[in-house]
Amino acid sequence: MRAHLGDQLVIESPTTGATRRDGEIVGLHHGDGTPPYDVCWSDTDEVTLVFPGPDAHIRHLEHGQPGAARDSQPGTGQAGVVSPAVSPSGAANAGDIGRRVAAERRRQGVTREETARRARISLNYLAYLEEQPADPTLATLIGLAGALGTTVAALRGGGIDLPPGQGNALLHPQLQDLGPEECRTLLSTHGVGRVAVSASDGRPAVVPVNYEVIDGAIVFRTAPGSVPAAAADKEVAFEVDHVDDALSQGWSVLAVGLASSVTDPDAVRRLAQDAHTRPWAGGKREMWVSIRPTSLTGRRITSADQ
């Protein structure tokens, strides 16, 4: 008996041949695909170690093609042909889970190979999951969450419409001031931050913007007359942060400095060429605002027990 990740283990009645139980093979213990297997049972979603008996057989993903190369890819019919996967639970849109996995993996600086090894899943399946619509099993999600130090709910997008920071407070929190160099590292090259300005009506406002860090300056694109555009020629505050709800820890960086509009055509052209992303809000946003920080401070909260 030989199996691949994603194949089905079927247990049949020895007298009637009726299926008594079946589950997806989510873990292999031998490179040649021989038993035992980690099986996620379809009736309970529990994962158990199984040494198949004489009443068990393998149902391969590609029926009628024994020995063909397979990966654990939902919706696979003939080899290499993938049909869109449909989530029976409606817990997430197809493709969203893979994008969250890839984003979290890149944020942590973990390679795809290392993630697959930690989660004990096929490297080819992880590549498929990150690049194509897929509906992974609960067992696969548990493995990926453990490998990336996050939760199944986070990978499924639970709480995506809620503000971060709803996790429990640490028993022994520790606040650390960050030096300028670490603040610059956390700012990195680009991302989403918040700029605090006095709007045209005189009221304070805080708005998110897609920003770039170029030659030590924080720059962002906006539209003339918009709230972010009111930052020009004023001293403003700019903040970025990251919150890890699962571990109840995170950091924030605050930059303060004079903002100015970039009007030199050569400078505008260079900024546009060096930009990593376009503003998520879309539309014509051709006004560049530059903030040259005169103050750069930050804090990190972690557990004092670590």
Write structural notes for this entry.
This protein is an alpha+beta fold and about 300 residues long. About 20% of the residues lie in helices and about 35% in strands. It contains seven helices and twelve strands. A six-stranded antiparallel beta barrel has the order 7-8-9-12-11-10. A five-stranded antiparallel beta sheet has the order 4-3-2-1-5, with helices on one face. Strand 1 (about 10) and strand 2 form a beta hairpin. Helix 1 packs across helix 3 and helix 2 packs across helix 4. The longest helix is centred in the middle third of the chain and has 13 residues, at about 95-110. The radius of gyration is 25 Å and the shape is elongated. Residues about 60-95 have low confidence and may be disordered.
Number of strands: 12
- What structural class do you assign from the helix and strand content? alpha+beta
Mean pLDDT: 81
Query: Which series of helices and strands comes N to C?
Result: EEEEEHHHHHEHEEEEEHE
- The low-confidence runs, each spanning 5 or more residues with pLDDT under 50, are 62-94
Tell me the β content: 25-35%
- Helical run tally: 7
Termini separation comes to 46 Å
Instruction: List the quaternary state of the chains.
Output: single chain
